[in-house]
Amino acid sequence: MATDSAKADAIKPPEMKCVDGNWAVAHATYRMNDCAYIFPITPSSPMGEEVDDWAAHHKKNLWGQDLRVIEMQSEGGAAGALHGALVSGSCATTYTASQGLLLYIPNLYKIAGELLPTVIHVASRALAGEALSIYGDHSDTMLVRGCGLAMISSFSVQEAHDMAVITQMATFTSRVPFLHFMDGFRTSHEINKIALVSDEQLRKLLPWKQIEEHRQRALSPMHPTQRGTAQAPDVFMQMVESSNQHYQDVDKHFIKALEDFKNVTGRDYKPFEYQYYGTSAPRVAIITMGSSVAVVNSTLKATKNEQACLIGVRMFRPWNADMFVKAIPESVQRIAVLDRTREGGAQGEPLYLDVCTSLMQQGRGSLFVAGGRYGLGSKDFTPRMVMAVVQNMLRKNTNDIQRPFTVGITDDVTNLSLTMGRHVNIFETKADDSSNVTQCVFWGFGSDGTVGGNKEAIKIIGNYHEKMSVQGYFEYDAKKSSGWTMSHLRFSPEVKIEAPFRVEESQAGYVACHNESYVQKNKFDVVKFLKRRGTFFLNTTVASLPDPEERLKALEALVDPKLLRQLALKNVQFYIMDAASLAARFGLAGRINMICMCAFFRLSGVLPLDDAVALLKAAIKKNYSYKGDAVVKQNIDLLDAVVSDPKYMLQVEIPASWRSLTPSDKEPSYKKRHITLMEDEKTRKFLDDISEPVTRLNGDDIPVSKFLENNLLGGVMIPGTSKYEKRNPNPSGLIPEWDQSSCTQCNQCIFVCPHAAIRPFVVTKEEVAAAPFPKEFEVVKAIGSEFAGKKYAIRVSPLDCTGCNACVEACPENPKALKMESIDKDFESNKKNWDYAYELPDRGDLTTKLTVRGSQFQTPLMEFSGACAGCGETPYFKLLTQLFGERMVIANATGCSTIWGGSFPSNPYTMSKKTGRGPAWANSLFEDNAEFGLGMFTAMKHRRARLVDLVQDYVHKLDLLPEGEKSEDEKSLESLLVDWLEVKDEKSDKPTLVYDKMKPYFKALCPDDSGRGESKDESDMMCRQDKDALLHKIWSDRDMFPKISQWITGGDGWAYDIGFGGLDHIQAFEANDVNVLVVDTEMYSNTGGQASKSTPAGATVKFASGGKTQRKKNIGEIFMTYEHVYVASVAIHNQAQVLQAFLEADKHDGPSIIVAYAPCIQHGVRPQGLNDMIDESKFAVDSGYWPLYRYNPELIKDAKNPFVLDSKKLRKDVTAFLQRESRFLNLKKNYPEIAGDLFAKMNSDVHHRMDHLRQLAEGYKDFDHPDDAAVKVLYASETGTAARVARDFADACTLSHNADAMDDVELSDIDGKTVVFVIATCGQGAMPQNGKNFHKELCSRTEPFGEGTRFMVMGLGDSSYFFYCKAAKDVETQMLKLGAKKMLEMGCGDDSEEEGMEAGLHSWLDQVWPALEVPPPEEVPHITPVKVAFSQRAVANADVDKHSLEQYFYSDAIKAVSVPILSNKKMCSEDYNRDFRTIRISCSGSNRTLSYQLGDALEIFPSNDPTKVSDFLHAYTHDYDERTVVSLHAFGIDGEISLGALFTNVLDLFCKPSMHFMQQLATFETSEDEKKIMLDPSFLKTASKETGITVADALLRFRKACPPLPALLSIIPTIKPRAYSIASAPQASTNVIELLVLIDTWWCDEGLRYGLNCDMLRQTVEGDHLWCRMKAGSMDPPEPDQPVICAGIGSGLAPHMAFLRDHVRAAEAGEEVAPFSLYFGNRKRAEEYLYQTELEEYEKKYEWFKLHSAFSRDDPNKKVYVQDLVAKTDDARLLLRDRPGMLYICGNRNLPKPMQDALVQSFSKHSDDKEEIAKATTDMEDMYIHGRAQQEVW
Length: 1834
Ligand SMILES: Cc1ncc(C[n+]2csc(CCOP(=O)(O)OP(=O)(O)O)c2C)c(N)n1
Ligand code: SF4
Ligand code: SF4
Ligand code: SF4
Description:
Strand order of the largest sheet: 1-8-17-18-16-19-20-21-22
Distance between the termini: 98 Å
Mean pLDDT: 92
Oligomer: single chain
Largest sheet: 9 strands, mixed
Domain 4Fe-4S ferredoxin-type: 734-763, 792-823
Low-confidence stretches: 1-8
Strand content: 15-25%
Protein name: pyruvate dehydrogenase (NADP(+))
Number of helices: 67
Helix content: 25-40%
Domain FAD-binding FR-type: 1454-1678
Bound molecules: thiamine diphosphate, iron/sulfur cluster
Number of strands: 57
Catalytic activity: pyruvate + NADP(+) + CoA = acetyl-CoA + CO2 + NADPH
Structural class: alpha/beta
GO molecular function, one term: FMN binding
Shape: globular
């Protein structure tokens, strides 16, 4: 403790340092404590970070020890640990804020109750209420004022340092714990030059005796005591009161500490600081705390206000009323109390209440007191506001004084706010406009180095001479990066700067704008800060223009005229420089901060230039010497250039004309950016009222009423506002450019984009033509029959793309189909085309969302978030919204995902254009998210149960009603409700879709807000149980119709640490069907990168700056122990696995948790940062750093191993992974001695973990060890399909263990084994990624495989590709070369087949089981009976049938139109044995029409012969026949239909039965013998050959099985349409479709058979109607100006005719038409020269058309085929090789190969030269690769 002798000591000049408030506190507290317990929370985290860093560097405290810094799992934990440390005699401290402080509360009571001395340092902050605010006010500190701590407020950075010491002194002398608080950000983050308390001074000041006493009071077995007992009413109160003495004395101890401190340091503080600058006596007193004291003080001082004085409250607790009232001069009549907090519903805020009570107590109750609120959430508190308060208090009549009041906002609702006057300049302004304080403002772009540079500048200037006073304060956009930054700097060699508020309008002598986009129209008012004759510096590329006039023009084009006018009127010195190109010139590309800092020193005159240059050079040497002399020199040369070379820094002569420029129009900026996107009035208003001012940094001016008008009360935000920002968050200036010719439409680039800025669009040709820039709207034909007639385009939003490169990295093609290009290239067309495409209809519903590719056609409902470029978190969230967006609710833990996902007013969560539905998102807190989500889930589950009851009751009530008493609407609603009850638990959009269908009936039946009639009396409705009331209640719970997917999301900090207790609790219960997504960045990213328990050993992050020593917590395995929890560990590059995990988690009935690896900017990936996000993810998995697995409890039910290890073989070394990230490298750099050990530990951990996971994945088949499995199943899979097929196979096969990716095994593993390969082919014949290495090794192996090596291959692909199944074929070839035995012909699953690849797969599997000699899996075929009942209607009714069939054909699943036949003509003679026909069909049906595009195909739904149907039914059963009427709820039919109509039009009674059908039928067979026959595949084979067995035949053959009607209708397949290429061209023959059809026949032993459709078509006549729909042809049709070669045989001529007719049409219309050669082949010229007349006529008429025909059966000795003609003629060479023409091949499967040979011959002119041939072959393949060769084969 300081003694009086201290007074005598001379006070040494202190060390001065430029630091911020956090550093100031940390520096003091580090030295005075043994332990610090920390947890990160803004804005106090830097205190913890500093002490942790010093501890890691072994800085010593006063006891010569390192401070022991311990990070806890939460503030609650820190408080508990602190309590424990204190009772153990430690000098311990902690730092916190806001919600964190609230979590301390229980322990604060304990610590105070037990009189344990400590100081808790708080950077005071707002509390989360209607929204989270990380900014400063006193809400947190005021809320703990009842805990029993003394509370001391610091007014400035210097005070924060000093009070940290003084409170430490007072806590020990008083034993009362202290809370020391400074204003969050304003003080904690403000840089100021302060005097430091030295160690020597501290030693003098600390009360050592009391510290010793504290230590002696500690718990110890040497003198045991008990603490924390339970007390009864008899003694508790006395014990509480027994500490009164200490509280009564604490102010004395504090005052004594202040005095001692003054004696040692010379700095004098009072508990209540009184200031008055008038000369008479003040009438008004302003009472306030924190940094506002300095604002009031400086204002009163500067204005020399005669009327008002200030009392700054430093000692808030204990409150000393006597001392306080004494501080108020007698003259004071009115008091204004300023509180920086709001206590809703209270009589007044805390300080106000204390003031009022004190005045009453001390007999001055007659004083007039007004309480006011200011500065909530860091709202800047300025001199202007102080003056508004003073003016308010000086009103003549006290009744006119606003009380309570608010200041700083416009409250036009409750009208509490004070009107503010003019800006007040508290600094002296001299005659020449110069000032005693230099004020500067810098505008920067997040991470451009502006803020860092300014911090450096403050230091340089602050250290320049002793007296120099400096201040720096920094503001940032809420976006995680690439947002704006603003630096407010003040310097003065004359006065001490006490101005804790921003630089104000028209006061800055220097304003710099480092980003030229800010000066553009509708951006920021960057020059408003400039004062007259100030200096404005603009970094702009304009400065590089050589010609001054051109420069001026460019500037005028760039800069908002409003700004130019201000510059002129303010008579500003205007300088420009192109920092980027200058930096590049000096080899320092991208480092503009150094240049801008030099420019500042040169222009601001803040220091003499020579001195500044010398100091800058010294700084350069200090900062860069570790990079080598060359870098130092580069920087110094650059510095010299900036400060002295006139070439670079250019002064702009401001023309007089700028003075009269008219301000730019007032149109809001979002309109300029994206006017077309304005969705509705609500959004428009929100953008106008709220978003626009906020984005232009004028949010302070928005009045309260606007928030209410926009329905934002309670913190509600409207969806989808981020899309209007278009903020170009792209420092790289690069965006991806798409090369459609190498794109395989896999959509992998789309999947990974963190910003949803790249999307695939499925568009029509007309839409492309209508694009703003149609030529630049590149498209290719969309792959997949579901996209019939559509084109595929990838487009990028240039103003949303962050240039992160993830999409390019993810593209699997070689060469890649995306490359980064300058954003300026085609900017206008890219932007406009994007805007246009964005507005086009959503077409995601055309395809499935269950595949990687399909999922990406779903519009993301989370887009353009504020995350850093390349953020690893966002793609997962985006995918969630694509899969479940329209039925999901998200509870999101505080973290990055709440900042990028919910920063007002930018909301990236949006809704579907089509349905208006979208994810509902809410954030509660950091610590309670699991519980918050569970609350949502349980509440909704309960509400839904009620809805189910209500629906059941309602349906029951209707059921009881006689038919005649139900209205048609009721009947329809009833039937839909019944449907809903059936599907309600299905985890899909189905329940929602059923609800959509109900809506019109609710509207019609519900007499309330659903649309009809008067609103009913609510309470009456609730009491009643009749059907109307039930309906009303159902409507009220309508939100529960969808099957909600509840997601609980957050980061690792939440899941592993602070929220773990809650997370564990919700996972522990099977009934909690909630899904948890943890985006694992392995640190607390949002607060700047502090360690969590997810941080791995060896990482250097904040709070573990000496390297984390403990290994990462294994959260996945922890939850696996519950056994009912679905657990997955995923990483973004493995898209198929991510997708599978998300789908499985949602599907799992119970809790799930997905832990997703999320690369973060703070990992410091080198050298490209998150530009390598995808590679980083892959490397992490390949090295075993991040394992991929899924634990699916559903598998346990099937007696399978629930654990599936998705990543197996370690292909990379984990230490190599560590070398890629600075979080690990820093350890090596700073602590090489421990780095080696920790890295080795990581290596062994990884191997240990992988071994363990492998064990988990093993063993559930009959063999003992997986290695004993006789069959190895391997796959190479790009999108996950091949992997799924392989896994299913391995599961089913008794001889195999499980399926592995090919790359996960060694060749030696398959030597001597039986191997089953399932191999997909991706792109243009490429091997999928996870098979590439295996294949490479296979190709380089020369040693043959051992005997017994056998294999079979299943290839998956798409036969419309040239390289169909190439990867599979390559493996087969290579295996054969190495002597392995092929067991089976390769199977091929063809995606372009009507039934998809399943058909090929099943027929292959049929052969696999016998080949392996294992029984096929015993599958019980699943039968879902059709909902059907016999109707009471006696006879069929044609109208009823018609209606029901229309329902069927018009249903979403079919979407057909009934159109009439115009003609049906044979093309060959009657008696010829083949029947080619032209069938012309009208496009106009009865009430719908068909439209088609060139090259499309028409799908026709055949029907059965009604007589045959009738015969069958009569033969089959006596229970029903074709006249029987049933009521049906299936096939889209909702009503009655006769069985005759159903069997004729819907069910494929006469198709060939499949094995699956037989299996299903067999389940109804009772005779085992019959069953055996049915299940024997040879039965079908033989019957098919002999009799051409049909389903009807099979049913009759096994009549005894006779399934009941519901099952029968379910097992008979439905009639599928048959597709025919269209031979007409839509523009040439309007409203008519012409088909060229060959009536197909086939033979069985019993005779000739017709296909169903052909049978029907051959019998149709003019006027008959056909049910048809359009299907896109598989070939991309040519444009008329494209050279074309068509080769077709037989009816394959159809599409060629269409193309040709379109060329003819174009020629007739005078369009340019390119050469067109047609090679047509058929059997006999005389009979089969189809379209002969027409073709020959064209040949004669048009010179661009050449016809080549070949007839193979005319001359049996000389068969001529089309390919022979192609080879012989020059057309192919001239049109396809020498020109970029298109080739179309159409005919049977045997045609393409010979055609390719023919092309090579034509291209090489029949050369024998190998090189020529090779070149021709490459040219030919090139055509295929680039989509110029297209084929349709069958
Ligand atoms: C009780 C409480 N303590 C501390 C904080 C400050 N805080 C907000 S987010 C966050 C870190 C979040 O980290 P993590 O959960 O890993 O998510 P990430 O930011 O990495 O996505 C912290 C410490 C808080 N909001 N509430
Ligand atoms: S560069 Fe990044 S932000 Fe831009 S489209 Fe590609 S992935 Fe998306
Ligand atoms: S091939 Fe490349 S560009 Fe095309 S969709 Fe796939 S990833 Fe995207
Ligand atoms: S998680 Fe990392 S990369 Fe993503 S927004 Fe947060 S800090 Fe940026």
